Structure formats: C-alpha cells, structure tokens
C-alpha cells in the first residue's frame, strides 16, 4: 500500500518539489503552508496533475503547537494515518550580522525553524508511537554541521540546534520504538528561500555565478531524496544529497556548464521584494 506523506512548508521550493516527487512515485501527500491562499494554490496545482484522491492540504503555522496538532488530525481524518512526516517548513533572514537583526526577525527564524520543528517532531513521534509505526525526517540546512557563514548566525543557530536535537533523539529513543527518525540534507537548491536574504538584485548578482555552480534544481534533488526516503528502513539515517566528490565535479566541469538556475527566480523574488 502507498504511504501517506506529510510535508510541512510544502507549498513551494524543495517542499513542493518533494510533494511532486512522492506523488510521481504513487504516494499520497499532505502539504501545509502558513496561509490558506498559498496552500490552496499548491493543492489545486498538484490535484490538476495527480488527481484529487492523492493530495490533501491545509494551512498550518508550525510555530504554533496547536496548529500542528490540528493539521495532524485533519490529515488523519482525510487519509486515515500518517506514515512519513517531513519537517521542511523553514524561514531565513537577511544577510546581516546577528546584532543588526531586528528582534522580530530573530523570533521568526527560531520559532519556525527550531521551536516549530521540535514541536512538530514531538507531536508526530507521540502519535506515530500510538499508531504503531512511522518515520520522521528533519530538514537540515546551512549551519547544521557547525560551519559558519557571515550574515547567517541566527539561521545557522536554528539548524545547528536541530542537529543536536535530532542526534539526542537517536540516542534517547528505545530500541523497540516503532518510529524511525532521520535527517535530509538537500544541499544548496535553487529556490526562493535561497534568494530572499539578499536585499537587492545587485547583491545577488555578485554571487550568482558561484551559486550556479554549487546549487541544484529543485526536481533533481527532490527526486533523489524521495527515492531514498522510500527505501530507508534504518533509524538514524542521514540522507545527504551533496558530497565532496559531487562538489569537486561541479567545479571541474563549471567552465563547460552554462546553466542559469535563477533566470526565473530572480525576477519573481526581486519584483516581489521591490
């Protein structure tokens, strides 16, 4: 039987790409976004391609535990169960020194990326344990491995905190737990989230060439991750798209690769941001 897969923040970017990838593999998918409008748009688009029976969506604010609980209940009410839960929802902040960020920007990142993911994981873990099976995946990002990049202190802190939390769960869960927990590491993916921290088109243009070398298209990464999530049977799996060999190959072949992954995204992001 096909799985019911929940993807938080599944209305755009890598989350939406994962939704498509799982649906193409015959799974049933539930997504959520922060607003009813964005969720409705994404659900309508997915249903047009994959049909009404395989797709469900509802708005959910992952920084609010009660909203997460309501979303879980609505998914179970629609599909009957949840087999795989992917904590993908996340936000970034402008490339600024930590002391330059406004308190509300700091709160948004920590509440969504760290507190929200912990709450969602705890809720899914409790309810999957009760149902007797399930898998939970936490999306890692820049800073998860402890590496530091100027202007990303708060975002990196949120992701590094999730690494500690996840590895603690791996250690603390009993051996007979029916729930598996793993992480997904997509690497740099060409999405709006990658561009929104830049304050102008000109600022992004200064790094556009290197981003075109390092980044990958959403569908390429999402398809690769989806295959490995569906095949995984191991608790504590760290599913990592990028690798040293893959990165070396990108730089070695970059003089011959004229791709531009950001042609459409640049207009979308910087027109919306003014």
Segments where pLDDT lies below 50 for 5+ residues?
Answer: none
Q: What's the CATH C level?
A: Alpha Beta
List the strand order in the largest sheet.
3-2-1-4-5-6-7
**How many structural units, i.e. domains?**
1
CATH fold category name: Rossmann fold
The CATH architecture designation is: 3-Layer(aba) Sandwich
Tally of alpha and pi helices = 11
How helical, in percent, are the residues?
40-55%
SS-based class: alpha/beta
Instruction: Return Rg in Å.
Output: 18 Å
Walk me through what this model shows.
The structure is a single chain. This protein is an alpha/beta fold. Strands 3-2-1-4-5-6-7 form a seven-stranded parallel beta sheet, sandwiched between helices. The N and C termini lie far apart (47 Å). It has one domain: NAD(P)-binding Rossmann-like Domain (Rossmann fold, 3-Layer(aba) Sandwich), CATH 3.40.50. The chain contains eleven helices and seven strands. It has helices at residues 13-24, 36-50, 65-79, 103-131, 153-172, 192-195, 201-205, 208-214, 218-231, 244-253, 263-272, and strands at 4-8, 28-32, 55-57, 84-87, 134-139, 179-185, 238-240.
